[in-house]
Hints:
By secondary structure, this protein is α+β, with helices and mostly antiparallel strands. Helix content is 41%, strand content 13%. It has helices at 7-17, 31-49, 134-153, 156-167, 177-188, 192-195, 198-204; strands at residues 57-62, 75-78, 89-91, 105-108, 111-114, 119-124. Mean pLDDT is 90; it is low at 193-201.
Amino acid sequence: xxxxxTDISICSEALILLGASAISSFSEGTPAATACSALYPGVRDxxxxxYLWSWSLKKTQIFRVSxxxxxxxxxxxxxxxxxxxxxxxxxDNGGDNAQPINYGWEIYxxxxxxxxxxxxxxxxxxxxxxKMPTYFVKLLRTAMASELAIIVTDQVSKADxxxxxxxxxxxxxxxxxxxxxxxxxxxxxxTTKAFDDFTLIEVRx
Length: 205
């Protein structure tokens, strides 16, 4: 990871890969800047959500909403604002030996409804670019180049080239290329204590 990585720098590097000029702002008014502004957030969040990156996981206590839900549950708890998708796992305490609770809760909109008196969750959050590891930034930069290629160069072949570089061949179903390399690197650094239970994956899906 590098503190200098930003949404602008990643998009600029993607443009440079395509032989175009870097941008200094999403609002500078050029076609490239407009395209980056429109496409980048979706590409970033989709790549983050496609895999349980070890550095994108948080555990936190969430707090009860004062107004009770109007259904069978007693309580509702506010989900974090930086959550990318649903909770990976739900717990009724924050102790070292806490086990995921697979039933007895539901997510409605941006809240968890449950009868639990206390709720902790594991979840995936929107990681700032400066805290993304180098291998993921490289993947994100290449994925952006694939999205921008036709807009910037008007060449389908370049879009295909960078898409294959990022995700592998069509037969790999988006799990090859730099994506596979990145997940392999990340898996070597996974913390086995908190996130290696198969039950976590069951709760996520």
